[in-house]
Structure formats: C-alpha cells, structure tokens
Amino acid sequence: MLCRYVHGKTVQDHCETRVRPQRLAARRVNELLCIVRSYETSSEDADWLDEDKVDASGLIIPEPSSSALQVPESECLANPWTGEQ
Q: Residue 33: which residues within 8 A CB-CB, separation 6 or more?
C-alpha cells in the first residue's frame, strides 16, 4: 500500500472511470459500439465496450438490431455470377 494517503487524505483502493464517447453507433447484448475521439491525433475510433463502463448520459442509445436475416437465405446463397450474360 504505497499510495494509501495523498495530501493527508485516504485514497480509494479502486477508482472507477467510465468512457464518455462522442456518440453511440450500435448496441448489442450488454455492449455499446462507442465512437471515441482521440484529441492527440484528431481521429475517431470505434470500440465495443460494456454498458457499465460507458457514460451514456445525454446520448441516444440505439436499439439492438435483430439478428434475423432480412434477405431470404436462398437469395443470400445464390451465386450472382452464374447464368446467361
């Protein structure tokens, strides 16, 4: 316990930090696709993070998309490059 006291006050053993994303792109079970801006490189990165590690206050949380196929399976498996030209 090297850093037990700082400026005469006790330090909490576990400091919880939450990520504040620029926006939320998608949602799946217990995870959010967060768009996080890096100010050092002026770039944006997307990462899947647990919901409890994200500060989403004031952001619109997207509904999870259904995992059902929107296109019939036979159409997905069809080869578009066969047939007459």
A: 24, 25, 26, 27, 46, 47, 48
Is there a domain that residue 61 lies in? Answer: no
- The reply to whether 23 falls in a domain is yes
Nearest-angstrom CA–CA distance, 37 and 56: 15
Per residue in 37-70, pLDDT (tens digit) is: 888 888 899 999 999 999 988 998 888 766 655 7
The two tokens of residue 27 are: 């949602």
Q: How many domains does the chain have?
A: 1
The pTM assigned to this predicted structure is 0.56
- Determine the structural domain holding residue 21 and report its residue range: 17-56
